[in-house]
Design goal:
Among the domains are: about 75-180, no CATH class; about 365-395, no CATH class. Helix 5 (about 80-90) packs antiparallel against helix 6, helix 5 runs parallel beside helix 7 (about 120-130) and helix 14 (about 260-305) runs parallel beside helix 16 (about 330-355). It is an all-alpha fold and about 400 residues long. The N and C termini lie far apart (about 145 Å). The longest helix is centred in the C-terminal third of the chain and has 44 residues, at about 260-305. It is built from 18 helices and no strands. The protein is flat and about 155 Å long.
Length: about 400
């Protein structure tokens, strides 16, 4: 009966206290259950890269051998390979069409430090082959290459002998200083003329022997050599009228050994060696002076050809006057060339003083042109053209 009476009623609700307990239990169970951790914010790439520890050098992978060659400035070559390379360069550098490439290879050998005392003689053959023709070094297409090669050769001049250094300094006059005279830079031109003046001052006074050697050098060496051989054959003491050699009275030199003492032989040998060394030194000095004078004369001729350039004229005047004042330091044939050069420059100086340039036109610069233009203008003090015709503008221009 009771169940029927309460059938239409809603089900009983829990008490407020029980509801609170139930809610608290649910909240506790929710709190006690583990929640998934939230992922941390990503760190900036720069900060993580800075904090990243560097790996040890052993763990770094080595680059391939082919790639490392791109960054190498020098090549490890044996002395034998360097000598073979210098011999090949010397054989090709004589050809003007191959000079550019061969000279650059020679400069690379200098920069790589391959020119040493053991290889200096082979490198000197390269320079000697390059200067086999003294006129080729001033060719317009080869000037820069000659200038670069002999400028770089100054860095290894200490490895050469005294004789080789003297020849290198003489070749430098033709290959470097003479080519500087073709420049369009007034500073480089003036510097080159100053060097030439100093070199002329350092020359000794020419003697009669120098004149004789110059005359002999102009002759054909092959004809001279054959004539000397013929004369020696005819004047030989062991030759007969039939051209047959007589038997020597003492072919083994026993008489000289018996008659002379050993001490005398030693002293004679020392004297002969000293005299031979002195003769060699004198001969080397004469060769150096002859090549030095010839190079300076070629520089004077090159400078004289540039006299038509206005800004070159003052430096050329000073150089030619200095060479004429020191004309006694040159040989007879070279003195004639210097006198003709100085006479030509003096004539052009007179033409300049008369108001005419080398070309025959009036030698007027920009300032003189403006002076002539505004000398006839009529200018008033009110910044307008007036009718006074005063000569204030001419006075202002000087």
């Amino acid at each position: 009966m009771g169940g029927d009476l309460f059938q239409d009623l809603p089900p009983p609700t829990a008490a407020p206290s029980q509801q609170i307990v139930h809610n608290s239990v649910n909240s506790v169970t929710e709190e006690s259950s583990p929640k998934p951790p939230t992922p941390p914010p990503p760190a900036p790439a720069l900060k993580s890269a800075l904090k990243r520890p560097k790996p040890p050098p052993e763990s770094q992978p080595e680059a391939a051998p082919g790639k490392r060659l791109r960054f190498k400035t020098t090549t490890d070559a044996s002395e034998k390979q360097v000598i073979e390379a210098m011999q090949k360069i010397a054989s090709h550098i004589k050809n003007p069409s191959k000079f550019s490439k061969a000279s650059k290879l020679a400069v690379q050998l200098i920069q790589a430090g391959s020119v040493k005392e053991t290889t200096s003689s082979y490198f000197f053959t390269v320079l000697e082959a390059a200067m086999s023709s003294l006129t080729t070094c001033n060719d317009p297409s080869l000037r820069a290459d000659y200038h670069a090669l002999f400028s770089a050769a100054q860095d290894v001049a200490e490895c050469l002998s005294k004789k080789q250094q003297n020849l290198l300094s003489a070749w430098t006059i033709s290959a470097v200083w003479a080519n500087d005279l073709f420049t369009d830079d007034s500073f480089v031109f003036s510097k080159a003329t100053g060097r030439i003046k100093e070199e002329i001052t350092s020359l000794p006074v020419a003697t009669e022997d120098d004149d004789i050697e110059e005359a002999v050098a102009l002759k054909d060496e092959t004809t001279e050599g054959s004539a000397d051989e013929q004369i020696n054959k005819e004047l030989s003491p062991h030759a007969t009228n039939d051209g047959c050699r007589e038997e020597e009275p003492d072919p083994f030199g026993l008489d000289a050994l018996i008659s002379n003492a050993p001490k005398d032989n030693k002293s004679k040998g020392k004297k002969e060696s000293l005299s031979n060394s002195r003769k060699d030194d004198e001969e080397e000095k004469k060769i150096f002076l002859r090549s030095q004078r010839e190079a300076l004369i070629s520089c004077l001729e090159i400078a004289a050809k540039r006299y038509k350039t206005p800004w070159c004229q003052t430096a050329i005047d000073i150089l030619a006057k200095h060479a004429f004042d020191n004309i006694s330091k040159f040989t007879t044939g070279q003195r004639d060339a210097i006198e003709k050069l100085w006479a030509s420059i003096r004539e052009q100086q007179i033409r300049r003083k008369q108001g005419k340039s080398v070309s025959g036109k009036l030698d007027v610069n920009a300032f003189e042109q403006l002076q002539q233009k505004y000398a006839s203008e009529k200018i008033s003090i009110r910044h307008a053209v007036g009718g006074g015709g005063e000569r204030r503008c001419e006075q202002w221009l000087g």
